[in-house]
Amino acid sequence: MLKSRKQETPDPSDAGPSGASLPEASSETGARRPRRSQVDRSREAREKLLQATIEVLMQRGYSGLTTKEVASCAGMSNGALMHHYANKAELVVAATAAVYDEAIKRGQRVAKSAKASESPIEGFITDCLSVYFDWPFIAALEVIMVARTDDELMQRILPVMENYRSTTNELWLSVFKNAGMTPTQARTVLNLTLNLVRGMAVNRMWQKDEKHYKLYLKEWVRIVREQIGPVGG
């Protein structure tokens, strides 16, 4: 599971003696932990590499990212990285896909929450803000800006973005319709809300105005309710 830097916390289970092998467990201390399989080790290595890719991407941007630095950040050799990902583009696309897979799961949790049930529009805004006002959008934007003039990279990254958008749209259109919106109302509210938040997210990169963003979004919810009537609850 990928996390932003501010979300990471040390795992107490990682602590332990260094440089010494553990003695064989007795009946008093319990059985030894089973050795990890090759599949488990490979999965953990990929997760470390993808997390490190996001870290470097956030710090240096796509143009400044190198596989050597990612490998170092992950505590691995460049050769070990190449065993899992053949080149920089493949690595970055895989990391972006992992970011948006997490965003989809987070959106699904929000859609099932009490807040989304009571106020679907506010629930959708919460989902949008968790992506576009945070590191997933910044990381993806770094890649998209380069892909704009790199056809090969665009062909790799576009399916990732389209999958996220179509999956998320389908999820929230269903929530809106279940709350009483017509299909046309649901599509209109979803797309206008999405583009409102995305526009703020771009503006936020150089002009952080959290107070007014919140006021505008609150006003947007009021306008929607005024136009289509109460939904949810």
UniProtKB/TrEMBL annotation:
Residues within the DNA-binding region(s):
66-85
UniProtKB keywords: DNA-binding, Transcription, Transcription regulation
Domain (HTH tetR-type): residue spans on this chain: 43-103
Where are the annotated segments for Disordered? 1-44
The record's PROSITE patterns line, in alphabetical order, gives: HTH_TETR_2
GO molecular function: any one?
Answer: DNA-binding transcription factor activity
How is this protein named in the record? Transcriptional regulator, TetR family
